[in-house]
Design goal:
Length: about 240
């Protein structure tokens, strides 16, 4: 049995981390039995979630989890796609993970109101006297990571502009297709769903959310993917699971 290490559902999302949600959807797409465990962060091989334990073998990072499932179980998440489509899918995935992610992270962690409504809850089990110190240390760590990536060096409106450009690209590429690459879901849907759902999450206010909300096709897409992979949740990010 595969164990997927997660943060656990939060803010009406399957997980606050889009990378964890991506890995979970890939497991669902593969049709493999798995369990989730929210107690693995301290032992994460790369200091981040997600990672899996598959019969004693630990695989960290959502993309390497995907590669592991492809190699060990013979799953082709891009079944039916041409090499050109596979290339586009990879490029969109990495745009979301390596660029859009940082704009979304900035809006959750550096906007005080969003932080108070969101990531602050991760620290509520820490005793009150030291909590504010721990929160300050972790927020500084996130700011340093944003700076090291480069996104954190931009002004607020520039960060929003970059994030919105990615959202527009996602909405335009999706167009009227049911799933990101066509009539059926493929691997990239795990990523696109996870990121767009996180941005549309009504728990947070941001220019990214306002931009995403202008695209009905994105909202319908979230409903469609929810129906396929999280029917038990009924709706995610205010988008009702669609029949
Ligand atoms: N490249 C990784 C990214 C994973 C990642 O950034 N996870 C974040 C949560 S969204 C994390 O665990 N951060 C904890 C930390 O940096 O201390 C993947 O694809 O799995």
């Amino acid at each position: 049995m595969i164990t997927l290490y997660t943060f656990g559902p939060q803010f009406g999302l399957p997980d606050p981390s889009p990378f964890v949600t991506k890995a979970e959807i890939l497991l669902k797409m593969a049709g493999l039995p798995y369990r989730t465990d929210t107690g693995g962060f301290a032992k994460a091989p790369k200091g981040k979630l997600p990672y899996i334990d598959d019969d004693g073998k630990k695989v960290a990072d959502s993309t390497f989890i995907r590669r592991h499932l492809e190699r060990k179980y013979g799953v082709d998440f891009d079944r039916g796609l041409s090499p050109e489509q596979r290339a586009s899918a990879w490029a969109f995935e990495k745009m979301a993970e390596d660029n859009l992610y940082w704009a979304a992270l900035d809006s959750r962690w550096n906007d005080d109101a969003n932080f108070a409504r969101g990531p602050a809850v991760f620290f509520r089990r820490i005793p009150a006297p030291v909590r504010s110190l721990v929160v300050a240390i972790i927020r500084r760590k996130v700011r340093k990571a944003l700076h090291a990536h480069g996104m954190g060096r931009h002004a607020k409106d520039e960060i929003a502009a970059l994030g919105i450009r990615s959202i527009e690209a996602i909405a335009d590429f999706l167009g009227s297709k049911p799933f990101f690459m066509g009539a059926e879901p493929t691997g990239v849907d795990a990523t696109i769903f996870a990121f767009v759902a996180g941005i549309l999450c009504p728990h947070f206010d941001s220019p990214l959310r306002a931009a995403a909300e202008k695209h009905d096709n994105l909202r319908r897409y979230i409903g469609r993917v929810t129906a396929r992979y999280y029917p038990e949740l009924g709706e995610i990010a205010g988008c009702k699971a669609a029949a």
